[in-house]
Amino acid sequence: MNPLYRRIADQYRSAIHAGSLRPGDRFPSVRTLMRTHTVSLSTALQACRQLEDEGWLEARARSGYFVQHPRRRGLPPATEQGLRPIDPAAYVGISAHVSEILARGQRQPVTANLALAVAPSALYPGEALSRIMQRKLRLQPTALVSMTRRHGHPLLRAALARRVLARGVAAAPEEVVITQGATEAMNLALRAVTQPGGTVAVESPSFYGLLQIIEALGLRAIELPTSPRDGLSVEALAFALDSDPSIQAVAVMPTLHNPLGCTMPDARKAALVALCAERGVALIEDDIYGEMSPQPARPLKAWDRAGGVIHCNSLSKILAPGLRLGWMLAGRWQARVEMLKYTQSRFPEELPQATVAEFLDSPAYDRHLRRLNEALRQHRDAYADRIATHFPPGTRVTLPEGGMLLWLQLPDGASGDTLFDAALARGIKIAPGSMFSTGRRYDGCVRLSCGRAMDEDVDAALRTLGSLVRGA
Amino acid sequence: MNPLYRRIADQYRSAIHAGSLRPGDRFPSVRTLMRTHTVSLSTALQACRQLEDEGWLEARARSGYFVQHPRRRGLPPATEQGLRPIDPAAYVGISAHVSEILARGQRQPVTANLALAVAPSALYPGEALSRIMQRKLRLQPTALVSMTRRHGHPLLRAALARRVLARGVAAAPEEVVITQGATEAMNLALRAVTQPGGTVAVESPSFYGLLQIIEALGLRAIELPTSPRDGLSVEALAFALDSDPSIQAVAVMPTLHNPLGCTMPDARKAALVALCAERGVALIEDDIYGEMSPQPARPLKAWDRAGGVIHCNSLSKILAPGLRLGWMLAGRWQARVEMLKYTQSRFPEELPQATVAEFLDSPAYDRHLRRLNEALRQHRDAYADRIATHFPPGTRVTLPEGGMLLWLQLPDGASGDTLFDAALARGIKIAPGSMFSTGRRYDGCVRLSCGRAMDEDVDAALRTLGSLVRGA
């Protein structure tokens, strides 16, 4: 017999079919469902998620679920793909492959760049930041010629400590280490906790930047099953830790994962932190999209009691893509991270830090976040809508709660690499799935960024992509 | 019998004793000596160098030799110290030692910082750079929020290629890779050409930053005999390459060495490049003080025909200590360096690059260089003068042709580490010699920076240091 949540879901699916719930209608709240059907919170939630997974419902920030536009229903969500065993030889060469893809993308004139995981500059507070920086330059004429002094400007460290406190992490300003973007932070984190030849457990798929760092540091990545909805499988990690003693660190993106877009539920985050603490394995989190989450998302660091979590973050995606301002909380490895940072690139420039600190501490930052996230929500909806229209049946896509990344599984037989080449020849840039795995597991996938607002060019690009996939 | 050059030197020494040549007098030019004594260029030069080594003569930029101030005569130049064999255990731990020294220096309030290898901000064109940056911010309001795109701003790459052309290096703008200071450039260079466990041949003493990088990358440093006047012994390097096949790179500072202050003569630079090319060993040069040389100093890269030299440089010491703008010419490793750079910290911020490019291309840059180098020359003279007055007999010191670093050999028995502690307790910061060798060979030495102009505080600090050495 069907479990209870499925029977509830069936009932509402019929209501949508019957037209009693129409696209755009607000779906009954979880509280209402609990009362109406006398079920537990978890059963009510499961029912909503079932319908969401099937494409009938859409979750909106702080507003609950809404019935989905019919065309969108044509797009089933991306699934977790079975992990094939990997030929050891396939562990090498991801950097060369990614560099090749990036280089080819740069040689070609591009009219629609759907590969760029950042929003266009108009969505960031460029003028406000610029005015602050100009004032600081006027007031402090030696700003550019005074030697940099610390692992972060005191005002920026304090501002970031306050921001992360609101997300459940208590950190002293002195624990914040400012870095050259999250990329440097991830490098330092991995250098601090691993030895060359060691293994790093990662999600599958994973952001190619992480795979490149792992390879460039002489480490090996082991890719673990990851659900496009709930993230890394903690059970699979436990199994891997039991069977592979060379695993020295776990590196994940628990909130708005790149490329999957998924966020681990809190219970799963807590279990992951507990598992790594128990096994004494360093847990590194990349949280650069954390503040793009519609619900305030707690980072793994919020569950860290023993200093075993290294939190890596950046302001490049959320506030200022032109500044390379990353930061990290390195837990019990802070002294080692500070030493490595000094050795690798000394102390960061102070003027951009002071500029951003002032902005973060003003009400303008929260206003900016709301505006950015609302714009990205609209972009995601519009892109999903056009993808549903233009792509052939059999295409599956994630519809993440926040951020700007859509992960597409192409119909059987279609190749992301082939699509990349054909699209590039037509001035369209996408990120092929092969970039996101050392084992090249995801050639049947592509990542599309919806940072840019929908317009005629993007619509035409998506139509071209769809017809290329049909022709494949 | 004395060689010819010694007999000529004896003659002029007597003339100085007799007062026929007085302190401050211009010494006969090399051309005059050749004519007067009917000797070869090399004999005339050797005679001058002999007197210079004894402290009787001082070389000045483009003006030839001058008879030295009598007090300065009391200060014999630093000598090359015999290299003891090193216990392999001593290879580890330089980073921890240096971090400890740096951390102790930061905990203590300091009134006279003679450890900082950078000039005070007043000697840099802070206001001019600030005005350029303000204008760029006004004209391009999206500067801080547009994603960084390349391995360097085209205008800065072109400006640096022009500057280095004037020093004998022909490089296309696209060969210039912009980095986070010379520190990141040296990291990338070493990562590009070595494997963990490999050995890097370095000068002895060497800048501690290089030793830290080598250690942090899991490499081993082998320190080679280095003359405080002529730099690395190429013969010793040839011998080391013959006997140690694990040497994968040579990393040197051929112009105004830190801490020795010495510059390799052109013939020695050429021989070094030729040796490394012949043996197929990567040659990495740190040239950050290159433009502080009174004579235009050719970098090793000027002799590079096969792309085997990696030139690392920075604008932090010469132009803008508040900006972390380094750069490099990576020769045949350029593609690998660009890949590693992308993996390590992505592309650099564009605004500071555009700002500096505009300044470099204006006549103001050469004016700034002349002013900076003239100021540092005065500082060096004044510091040497006060050191001669305050320090006990037996102290030896280098008098470099440019830059701001003085290398002192303390009288027998005095320890740089002990002096560091005693001085720090009195608010004076110095760099103890132990920082400049993995084998801690230079505990009898200290490095003093004369970036700051001579004033009462500095004079008092040098007096205190002198009396601490006397009491040691």
Automatic annotation (TrEMBL), chains A, B:
Pfam families on file: Aminotran_1_2 (PF00155), GntR (PF00392)
Question: Per its UniProt record, what PROSITE patterns does this chain match?
Answer: HTH_GNTR
Keywords attached to this Swiss-Prot or TrEMBL record, sorted alphabetically, are: Aminotransferase, DNA-binding, Pyridoxal phosphate, Transcription, Transcription regulation, Transferase
Q: Where is the HTH gntR-type domain?
A: 2-70
- Asked whether the UniProt record includes Ribosomal protein among its keywords, one would answer no
According to the UniProt entry, its GO molecular function terms are: DNA binding; DNA-binding transcription factor activity; pyridoxal phosphate binding; transaminase activity
**Domain of life where this protein originates:** Bacteria
Q: Record's family?
A: In the C-terminal section; belongs to the class-I pyridoxal-phosphate-dependent aminotransferase family.
Protein name, as recorded = PLP-dependent aminotransferase family protein
Q: Which organism is it from?
A: Ideonella dechloratans
